[in-house]
Amino acid sequence: MHQPSARRRTRLLALAGAGAVIAPLALVAPSAWANPDLTVNEDGTYIVMLADSSLAAYDGGVQGIPATKPAEGEKLSTTTAAAEDYTAYLDRQQNAVLDSVGLDRADAVYTYSTAFNGFTADLTGSQVSALRKDPKVAAVWENEVRYTDTITTPDYLGLTGDDGVWNTQFGGDANAGSGIVVGIIDTGFWPENPSFAALPGDPEPPADWNGECVEGDSADPADNVTCNSKVIGARFYPDTNDTSFDFESPRDTNGHGSHVGGTSAGNVDVPMEINGVELGEGSGMAPAAHLAFYKALWQTEDGNGSGTSAGLVAAIDDAVADGVDVINYSVSGSSDYVVTADELAFLDAANAGVFVSTSAGNSGDTVGESSVAHNSPWTMTVAASTHDRTNSAEVELGGGAPVTRISGTNRYDTAAQIAAAYPEGVDTVYIATGNQFADALSGAAAASQGLVPANGLDQPAVAPDGSPAPVLLTKVDEIPSATMEALESIDPDNIVVLGGEVAVSDDVEDALGDYGTVTRVAGANRYETAALVAEQYGEVDHVYVATGQDEAFPDALSGSALAGSEGVPVLLTKSDMVPGAVSDALEAMGDPEVHVIGGSAAVSEDVFEDLGGSERLSGTDRYGTSVAVAEQFGYDADNPAPVVHTATGRDYPDALAGSALAGFQGVPVVLSRPDGLPNVVRDGMVALAPESAVILGGEGALNDDVRTEIEALFEDSSQTYPGISSGMGVGPAPLVNSVDIVAADSTVADAELCLPGSLDAAGAADNIVICTRGTNARVEKSETVAEAGGIGMVLANNNNEESLNGDFHSVPTIHVDGTTGDAIKAYEASDPNPTATISATGEGPELTYPEMAGFSSYGPASAGGGDLLKPDITAPGVDVIAAVSPAGNGGNNFDSYSGTSMSAPHIAGLAALMMQDNPEWSPMAVKSSMMTTADPTNSEGELINYAGAPASPLHYGSGEVEPGAAYGTPLVYDSDVIDWIGYACSIGQWQLIGGAADCADLGESDPSDLNYPSIAIGDLGGTQTITRTVTDASGEGGTFTAEVEAPPGIDAVVEPSTITVEPGGTATFEVTFTTTDAELGEWTFGSLTWTGPGEDVRSPIAINPVAMGAPAEIRGEGTEGSETFEVTPGFSGELTSVVHGLMASDVTDLDVTSDGPAGGDGIADAVVPVTVPEGTSAIRVEVVESEWTPDGLDLDLYLADSEGNVVGQSAAGGSDESVTTVAPAPGDYLVAIDFWSGAEGEVASGPLHVFMPSADEGNMTVTPSPVAVTAGVPLDLTAAWTGLDAATRYLGVIGYSTGGEEVASTLVSVNTP
C-alpha cells in the first residue's frame, strides 16, 4: 500500500432524507495535489501549469519563434534569441492567465519557464476553479510539503584502483567527472567542508554554465556562502517555506544536502572523522565534477528537512536553466501519479538532456507494498541496500548454561512467578483452582490467546488488546496472598474464572471483582467446563482432545501448550466414552479435525473412533507423549526452539500455569521424572535444539539433578547474536531492559524507547541497556543511556524489516534485528543475573552484501498499476559516510547517514561519469546502461535478500549498480518525450493535465510496451505480447541471442530470438508471455538477457498473472442487438459469464440553481441521496448535456458517501459527466451537481440518471457460457440484448466466474433511440 499525501477531508454539512432533492450545501472533497481532476478547491497556495510547452520542450509552433528544445546529445541554451523570445512569450501568457483571475505578475510567488511553464500564487477557491476551466491552463496543484527522504563505497563499486573506472575510463580521479555539473536539490551545503574545497588547478565552469552563486540574505555574513571551482552555483528558495530554524542562505543546517552532494561528487581522498574517531579517507562518485546546490528544503523544528512543492519546482526550473547535467532529488514524491508538478518538471529536464536521480522512499518497513515513489519512466528511481563496510559485530549473553527455574514457595506462588514472566501490559488474567488440574489446563490454551468470553457465553470470545493472559491459582474459598499480590501488580481489566463453585467459590469470585471485571466459565463437571471454554473460540479447523482423568493429567498439560500456540482449544474426554458436552462442542465449532493426545490407555480406541479422530499424538508413556507433542512445534537444529519448558510428570500444580505461558511463547512443555530426565525426553530436547530452557516448579517438583542434566544439553553456556556497530566494544557487564529502569517522572513507554530523561540513573549506572527502536533518533537513545550512566546499548528493532545501522553512538552500541532483540529481551527477563558483552566493530560474523535496507520503499509501482517496474536499481544507502553540516550534527563535519536519500546520489555521481564519457548519450541511454548491467545477486551468489528472505525486482529493480560493467554495454533501451507522454496516456494520467488531444494523436498503447530496460506486466490476463527496441551503444553493432529465464508458471517466447544490430542501428523484438500454471494474483519473476559482444544486456521481468483479461466496458445501441468482444483467461477450466442487468436508469428530473459563476462558493448546487443495496454490481451516476437546458451549460457531477466525503467526480468542460464505481459498498450515498457556468440564481433543468444493476433482468445473454477455456488462449464472447424500452439508457455488468466467486467483470452500456 502506498503512503498517501496529507489530505484535508471535508464533508457535506447535512444529509438528505430519502428521495429528497436538497438545496445547495457546501460540499468539498479530499485534496490530491497530484491529481487536478480529483480535487475541489479551497483557498491556499497553488502551482499552476500552463498548456504551452516549457522552454526545454518547445519544438516550434508559435509564429516567428523557432524551436528551443535541444537536439539529442545537446544541452538546452537559455541565451539564444529564440530562447529569449520564447521566454518573453511565456511571460505574456502567464500574465494573461494571472489577469484572468484578477492578479498580476507581482502576485506570483514563483514563475517558471525553463523545465516547467507556470507560476505559484496564493489563490481563492473560486480562482482555482476558474483556472482549471481555462483552456490556457493544463493543471493546478495545491502546494505541498515534501521531505528529505562514504568512506568505502567508491572502492566497493569498483571506482578506485588500477582497474577501477576512474583509472580505466578517465585516466585517474583528477579527471573523473571533469566538466560535468551535478545539481543538488536539497537542504543546501556547508561551504567550509573539505569535500567542497576548490578543485586542483581551479578549473573554470563549463562554457555553457549560466548559473550564479547567490550568497544569501543572513544578517551575519558568516551565515551566507561563497562558491569556488568545486561549488560553482548556489541558490535558495525561502518563499512559501518556514525558514525560522535555518540560515537565510544556501548554507546547510540539517546536513542532508551536504551529505548528498559529498556522496555524488565530493572531492577525492578527504580525511574523515566522526566524534574524534579517524575513519580514513573518503571520496564522492565523481570527484572532479562541479556541484551546484539548490536549497529548497529547510531545517524543521524537529531536526528534519522539508520544503514546499512550489520551491522545489522553482529549483528544478533554475537547475535546468543554469545548465546542470545531472539532478539529484533525494526528496519524497508521489507514489500514485507521474503528472505532479515536480515529475512534469523532470520530464522536461530529461527531455533537455538532464539525467535525474530520485530516491525511492523510506517507507518499506512502514507502508510496505507499493510504497515506492517517483514512478515516472523519465527519472532513475533508486532503492537502498547495504555494502561491504566492516561494521559487523556480535553480542554475547551470559556466562552459564541458559537454564532458569521459575518457582515459588508453593503452587500459588509458582503461578504468580510464572505470571511475572509475561510482558508488561497484559489485560486479562485467568483464575483456576489449585486443587485439581482439569480447569486450569482446559483454560490454558485460551489464556495463551488472552481470550475474554462474552457475557452469557453466547458469542465467540475476543482478545481485547491481543495480549496473552497469565493463569493464576486460588484456593476454593480463599485467594492466596501470592495471587492477590500478582493481581495487584498486573492490574487486569478482565478476570476469567474457570470452573464452578466447587472449584472457585462465590466468595472468591466476589473478591476477585475488586481487581477487574469477572466472567465465570463453568460447567457441571470438568468436561463441560472444558467444552464451554472451547466453544468460545467459535469455528476452528482443528482441536486437541486429552483425557480428563486425574491420573493422566500430563497429556493435557503438554497438549495445552501446543493448542495455545496454534490458537485452538483443548477438550477433555473420559477414557472409555465421549461426554455429551464434548460432542456438542465439536458440533458447535463446525466439526473440526480432532487430534487426540495420549495413548490408548488414556483415550481408548473406541473413544478415538467416536471422536472421529484424525491423528493420535502419543508415546510409550506420558514422557514419550510429551515429546511427541513437542515435535509438532517443528523445531530442529535448523529452526531451534527459543525455549523449552520442563515440568514434572508426577504432580501437576507447579506446572499448571506454565502451559499457558508456553502456549503464548509458542514453545513446548516436556515432562520429566522428579529426580532424573527420561532418555526419551533427553533425546527429544536434543532434537528441538533449544536456545534456553525453563524448569517449572521448585526442587520438590524437579530436583537439581534434572537441572544438571538439562544444562548438559547445552554445549556453550553463552548465547551469541550478530548485529551492526561502529566503534569500540564493552563488557562483560550487567544487562538491563530499559522498561525496568523507568525514571520517576517518566513512563514505561518512554523508557522502552530511551527517550531523553526517561531512564533511572541508579538502574542504568554501569549497565548495558536494551533500548527499542522508534520515535526518536537512534543516536539520541545512546545519548539518553550515557546521560543516565549506562556504559553500552543494545538497540533492538521492532521487526526484521527495519534496517540495521552502524551509527556513531555516545556509548558502545550494537544494533540487532527484531528477532534477536526479542531473544535478548527474553534472556534478560529470564536470567536472574543477565550479562552481555558487545564486541568492537568488525569482530562479528562476515556479512553478506548487498541486502535491501528494510526502509527502502518497493513496488509494485502504483502509478502504472505495476506495468512499469519501480524502483529501477539499488545502490549503497546504509551507513554511508559523507560530508554534513556541523550545525546540525553535533559539530561533526562528517557523519553516517542511511536512506534512499543516500543511494540516489551514488547513481547521480555515476551518471555524471557516464555522461562525461558518452556526451552524445541521452539520459535514458545512461539509465539503460546502468540498469541492464546491474547485478541482482549478493556476495554469496544468491539473490539479494530483504528481511532475511530473497528479495525480488519489486525491491531492487534490475539489481545493484555495477559501474564498471555499464561502460561495456553494447545495447541500450532508449526512449524520448513522445514515448513518455504515450506511457502517461496509457495509464490515464496525461489526460488529467489537459492532454487528451495528445493522447488521441498518439493512439492507444499498452503501458507495458514503453521501451524500457525492464519488463513488467501488472495484470497478465492469459497472454500478452510486449515490444522492445534496442539501439547499438558500442558503435560496432553485433549479433545477439536471447536467453530467457521465464517467470515460474509463465511461458515466454522471444521473436526473433537472434537479432543483428548494425553499427549505430536498432533492432526490434517481441516477447509473448502466456500464463500456464502460475499462481494467480502473485507476482512472479524472471529475466531476458541478450548475449553477444560486450557485456550481457539483462532485463528483469516482473509479471502479475490475473484470472481474466477482459475489456472494462462495451457499448451498444438499440432495443435489441449484440456486441462481440474478446477475453483471454488466465486459467484453464470452465468459464461462466454471470449477467447483472441490463437495468434502465432511475431518472430524477432536477432544477439546479447556481450559487455563482465559476463554480460559486460550493460544488453542491443540488444534492440527491441514493441508497446502494447489498449485491449491487456497479453504480453509475450520469448527466447528458443534450438533455439539459439552457444550451451550452457546464455541469460538474460528484458522488459522495453518506458523510459527504467525495469518492468520485466528473468535472470536465461541458455537461457530459459520468461517475462509475464497480462493486460499491452498500449504503447511503449523495450525488451532488454543480451548475458551474451559471450566474448566481440561474437555473439549469434536466434529468439525473442513476444505474445500479444487480440481478439478471432477463434481457441480456452472454454466449458461449459456460465454456471450457485454456489459459492464455483468447476467445470471443457475444453479449446480446432484447426487449429494451425505447429512448432509455441501460447499464449492466458481465461477471466472469471460475466456478466460485466472480474474478473479473465488464460493464455493458446500451442506449436505445
TrEMBL record:
Family membership noted in the UniProt record: Belongs to the peptidase S8 family.
Keywords, in A-Z order: Hydrolase, Protease, Serine protease, Signal
E.C. numbers: 3.5.1.28
UniProt name for this protein: N-acetylmuramoyl-L-alanine amidase
Organism: Serinicoccus hydrothermalis
EC top class named in words: hydrolase
A Pfam family hit: PPC
Membrane spanning residue stretches: none
GO molecular function, one term: serine-type endopeptidase activity
PANTHER family per UniProt: PROPROTEIN CONVERTASE SUBTILISIN/KEXIN
Superkingdom as given in the UniProt entry: Bacteria
